[in-house]
Amino acid sequence: MNIIYYHPFFDARIWLEGMRKRLPQAQIREWTPGDDGPADYAMVWLPPYEMLATRQNLRGVFALGAGVDAILAQEKAHPGTLPAGVPLVRLEDTGMALQMEEYAAAAVMRYFRRFDEYEQQQRQGIWRYLPPHARENFVVGVAGAGVLGGKVAQRLASFGLRVRCWSRSEKHFDGVESFHGQAQFAAFLKGTQVIVNLLPNTPETAGILNKSVFGQLNHGAYIINLARGAHLLEDDLLEALNSGQVAAAMLDVFAKEPLAQDHPFWTHPRVTVTPHIAAFTLPEEAMDYVAENIKTIEAGNMPTGMVDIRRGY
Fold first, then answer.
1. Which residues are catalytic?
2. Where is each D-isomer specific 2-hydroxyacid dehydrogenase NAD-binding domain found (predicted)?
């Protein structure tokens, strides 16, 4: 069994050594330009076109991240980057769900307890009590109910908050109200005070955080974007913030990264910026996942995390 590895900025030594321990029978190497040697599996992030284009005999390509939109965008720009018919597998959790839960919980509770407003008062030297949000009216909507979104929704519900989720297909989680499909999207938005976006980045979800959506939320709603910058129409958010329809936003992802120094998000008093740090790929957990999936394929079974190329996730 031969495995090739490529990542533009991860330390290859950690991954090669770790995979050799997990699959001692395999030959594992870092791919470099000109390498056209045998390969049964590939572990990649943003692979160069020439790495995989001619490898029709691969049994699986493992994307070293939960989202695969960047790799699919490469395929669209340079058809053949992903060999036709070769399964593409994404990381389903591998420690990222817990990180997303932590970020989402911190952001939601910051707004629920009005800590963001107390921070503003501190900067102005104001000592003033702010009435707490009524728990029954503080509805949190999680957009995207996959592995990450489902766990985030359940974690938020554990705080006794009213939580609802919306996804393409029907999903159910204990303590979470479920909505699915385009027909139920408006009902999901109505009465929602906080949107936590964890949708996959697909043509159908691009620009989904927009003026129309903001207008259907409660007045003074909050936006938390943890998925992709492409989901958010930035000018629409700024307009909604300045009108008061959106009270504040916490953003971890942006249309262009790094965020330009002159971007208005940096200085807007109701926007919190973090530099795409909501969840990282954890090597040990990721390697466990990939190794188990390779064993599954070798045994003649289907791996978990299979990507539907047409849907984009």
1. 228, 276
2. 106-278
